């Protein structure tokens, strides 16, 4: 059996340059994105769980813009759409002195996400809710829906219960899109068929968590690339870019899925409808590394200008 390895990704400064993303830990300067940031009652309202060490709202901002732009493009001027951040630390284990900081951070995220959804759904009972998550935030989003907790990386995350899809706030969730999650399992019905669906994440989820998560399969789409060291660490062609190119590859596919679900249109229900490329399609040139960029404890890669350290 393979020795457990701690993979820690700091997503800071290593973002595909094609998309304007508010990933740095400074206030987001994208005014059209900031204009969607609200806790007011809306027709459609997204909750965003950002990746480790990322600023708010992080890599999922452009997807939120696509989705809301589409959902508010109809003739009905009363239709509103926006997002709020799931407020949690998003600490990578790299950032802390102890190895359990990732688990503490994710547990805070799972609890905060459920509380924010509950508070919003109580206050805004007509709203249709959308859940988005990437990397640690993808793990958090899965925890929000299907319950979380257990061993992840080299620490043990506190348990949290699943949300019941039959009662509020679970019943308000019309769509969820999750990318590069840490704590996930192979061969699940909501996984997009682009390769990573055949591999476990850094650790697999428990049978109980998977069974509760599967209740959301009709509204959930989970993306995991082959070669992503976080969501498919035992797959071939491991490279950090495979953890970072989801938004170039799949934003259109995810937006189409979310919009169709949000509008109550099931035409996009079956599996992937867009590019089903594997790691071979990866556009390495778009990775823009930097000092303090992407760090994976355990080995060492050099990607662009970014150095990845990995240790066993
Ligand atoms: C979004 O709104 C919250 C308050 O609701 C605020 O704390 C945060 O700084 C805002 N900006 C971004 C980019 O998330
Ligand atoms: C929009 O909301 C206003 C106020 O509630 C209402 O009078 C109007 O009919 C609505 N318009 C549409 C197109 O639903
Ligand atoms: C955890 O993340 C928060 C910001 O989200 C940061 O303020 C804090 O310093 C981080 N903790 C450590 C130990 O890095
Ligand atoms: C992982 O956990 C084990 C058991 O608690 C500990 O002995 C080991 O040092 C940890 N490894 C790392 C890299 O923190
Ligand atoms: C995923 O993890 C489960 C639970 O440990 C294990 O039974 C299964 O064989 C693993 N699947 C793959 C593809 O690694
Ligand atoms: C909105 O999304 C639907 C479904 O993906 C698509 O058919 C339509 O062209 C989009 N409309 C706009 C204005 O983006
Ligand atoms: C559902 O999708 C079909 C085909 O894409 C489209 O013609 C129809 O207008 C959509 N319905 C709604 C309610 O969006
Ligand atoms: C979607 O899946 C259902 C059930 O598996 C099948 O009957 C239907 O034909 C599929 N629709 C499309 C558009 O692939």
Automatic annotation (TrEMBL):
Instruction: Supply the Pfam families for this chain.
Output: Cutinase
Top-level taxon of the source organism: Eukaryota
> Which portions of the sequence form the region Disordered?
265-286
InterPro entries reported for this sequence: AB_hydrolase_fold (IPR029058), Cutinase/axe (IPR000675)
A GO MF label: carboxylic ester hydrolase activity
Which keywords does UniProt give here? Disulfide bond, Hydrolase, Signal
Q: Which residues form the signal peptide?
A: 1-20
Q: Spell out the PANTHER family in the cross-references.
A: ACETYLXYLAN ESTERASE, CUTINASE RV1984C-RELATED-RELATED
Q: What is this protein called?
A: Alpha/beta-hydrolase
What species is given as this protein's source?
Answer: Massarina eburnea CBS 473.64
């Amino acid at each position: 059996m393979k020795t457990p390895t701690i993979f820690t990704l700091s997503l800071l400064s290593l973002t595909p340059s094609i998309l304007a993303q508010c990933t740095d830990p400074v206030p987001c300067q994208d005014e059209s994105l900031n204009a969607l940031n609200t806790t007011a009652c809306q027709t459609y309202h997204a909750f965003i769980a950002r990746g480790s060490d990322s600023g708010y709202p992080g890599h999922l901002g452009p997807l939120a813009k696509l989705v809301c732009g589409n959902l508010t493009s109809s003739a009905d001027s009363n239709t509103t759409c926006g997002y709020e951040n799931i407020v949690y630390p998003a600490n990578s284990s790299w950032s802390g002195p102890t190895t359990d900081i990732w688990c503490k951070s994710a547990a805070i995220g799972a609890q905060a996400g459920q509380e924010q959804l509950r508070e919003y759904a109580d206050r805004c009972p007509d709203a249709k809710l959308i859940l988005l998550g990437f990397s640690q935030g993808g793990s958090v989003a899965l925890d929000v829906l299907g319950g979380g907790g257990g061993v992840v990386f080299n620490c043990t995350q506190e348990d949290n219960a699943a949300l019941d899809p039959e009662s509020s706030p679970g019943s308000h969730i019309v769509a969820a899109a999750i990318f590069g999650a840490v704590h996930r399992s192979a061969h699940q019905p909501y996984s997009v068929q682009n390769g990573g669906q055949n591999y476990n994440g850094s650790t697999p989820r428990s049978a109980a968590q998977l069974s509760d998560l599967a209740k959301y399969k009709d509204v959930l789409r989970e993306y995991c690339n082959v070669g992503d060291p976080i969501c498919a660490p035992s797959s071939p062609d491991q490279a950090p870019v495979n953890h970072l190119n989801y938004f170039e590859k799949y934003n259109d596919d995810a937006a189409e899925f979310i919009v169709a679900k949000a509008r109550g249109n099931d035409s996009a229900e079956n599996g992937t409808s867009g590019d089903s490329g594997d790691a071979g399609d990866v556009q390495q040139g778009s990775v823009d590394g930097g000092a303090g960029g992407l760090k994976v404890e355990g080995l060492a890669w050099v990607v662009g200008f970014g150095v990845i350290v990995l240790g066993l």
